[in-house]
Structure formats: C-alpha cells, structure tokens
Amino acid sequence: MVYVLAKGGANGLSWKPFDPSLSPKGLSGIGYGMIYGFAGFAGFEAAAALGRDSRDPARVIPRAIVFSLIGAALFFILCTYALSVGYGVTHSSRWAADAAPLDTIVGLYAGSAWAQIVDAMVVVSAFSSGLGLMSLTSRILFEIGSHKQAPGVFARRHARFGTPFIGIVFASLVALVLAGAVGEGTNVTTMIGVLAGANTLGLILIYGLLAIGILVDRRERAWAVTRSGLVRMASAVVPVIALVLLGYAFYASLFPRPPFPFSLEPYLVGAVLLLVLLGAWALKRRGSGLDFVSAATESKEQSLTDVVPAGDATL
User: Fold this and answer.
1) 216-252, pLDDT tens digit by residue?
2) pLDDT at residue 69 is higher than 70
3) 180, 235: one domain
4) CA atoms within 13 A on the CB side of 200
5) CA torsion angle for 147, 149, 150, 154 (degrees, to 10)?
6) Taking a C-beta distance cutoff of 8 angstroms, is the pair 246, 211 a contact?
7) Burial of 201 (C-beta count, 10 Å sphere; 0-12/13-18/19+)
8) Enclosing domain of residue 4
9) In 20, 24, 90, 102, which residue has its Cα 20 to 30 A from 235's Cα atom?
C-alpha cells in the first residue's frame, strides 16, 4: 500500500477519499459503510478476555486494547486510502465490484509476483483472525460457564493444557456449520459480507449496552481509580458520542432496505438474540442460578481491589 502511494495512485494523491460528498448514496451510504468499518475494528477488546492469563492485567490489558485500536485505525486508514487512490476516486464502483481488491491493486502497481505474496498474507491473516476468534469465544464461554450463566460444561479445562477445550470445540463446530450452510447458497464474497454485517450488528448492540453501562456506572469505576478531570469528562462524553455513531450506523443498515441477502442480517441477529434469551430462560428454570448482577459485581470488586494496585490507575 505504501508503494501504491509512492506511485501516486491512479490520478495523484488528494484529500478526496475523505470527502463525504463523494459518497454515491450520500450519508445513508456512509452509515451503511460504517457497519463494515466496525467489522474491521471488531475484536480490539478481545485482550480483556485474557486477563486471567496475564501478568499485571491492570496495566497490560488496557495498554493492549488502546494500542491495538490505535494501530488498527492507522493501518485501515492507510490501506483504504491507498485502495481508493489506487482505483481512482471516481472509480469506486470498480473497487466495490472487485472480489479481490488487494490482489488487483498490488498486481497493477507492483506486478503479479507481489500480488501472489499479498494473497498468501491475506490467507495467513484470515487464519490468524479465526484463531483469535476461537480463543476469545472459548474463554468467554468459560467465564460465563464458571458463573453459571451458561452450561457448566463450558467451564471445564483440559487436564493437560488447562485450555477451555469444550468451548473451542463448540465454537469451531458452530463456525463450520454456519459457514457451510451460508456458503452453499451463495458465493464467498457475499457470504463474508452477510456474516460480517450480521456479526457487526450484534456487536453494535453490545457496544451500545456497554456505553450505556458506562454512563450508569461511571461514578464507581472512573472516580474510584483516578481523580483526573479529563478522565471524568471522557467517561461522560465519549459514551454519548459512541451511542450516536452506533445508533446511526444501525439505523443506516436497516433504512433504506439493503438488497437481498444483506437484508437478512437483522433477522439473523434477532434469531441469535432469541436463542440466547431462550437459553437463559431454560437455565434459570433448571435452577442454574443466573445472576448477572452478582457476577458483574464480583468482577468489578476484584478489578478494583485485587487487580488495580493502590495509587496506580495509569495506562
């Protein structure tokens, strides 16, 4: 991508890729595109799930989250800008219709040999992303299983390696079945688009709930670990900004109605949410002792007493 910029792209470098007036569908198109922007950043918070396995998590985990978010932002801005000028700002339709834009642009500017190398890097990156998702999913299943908010079998560890192997197997099977079912009905590009869109809609709901939780609970956490006026202001302003952006992106993904099969994304999210609620109801009927408030309070008390060293609240 740096080489594409060094070559000047198709028509030279400019600020036009950042001009919202060039969006073919106006602000609604930008809002819908934000869904896939969130998809690119999704997972930056995954380091939080590794807190139990980290040394000095109060310092390491926040830094990992913040630095990964900053690094991902810079990386994605660089790549999308290079692709935009590489195709030409006025040829965004060609970019949108290209199933392998990285291969196309690298091949055009650096040759087919480099394009094949980039293709291999994309495969490795996708595989690494899958491994990260398996690790995150299995550890979250382990945590909620440990708090009896999911079947207790997910809280089992491997006798030799100490890994949450039940969650790993379960997440792998779900991913395999879902990818196979969707892949049989459409092509790879559409499959990735539908699954990424549905996944991000679910994440938007989760991020929105987290923002609301910060607004409701901010006095306990932000005020307990620091007296910084900047942090106090940020804990009140940033969640509001996040809610506005998340709400607009969610709305723009529904109206105007996207074409089929992308129009199925909210229904997929709704179906998963319904299954989760039914599962929670079934566990509660069996007397599993679902108590989200107690679990959250326990985690909070541990983070404020056992994890955060006295007088140390820095990143």
Assistant:
1) 876 655 455 555 667 777 778 888 998 998 888 888 8
2) yes
3) no
4) 25
5) -10
6) yes
7) buried
8) 1-106
9) 20
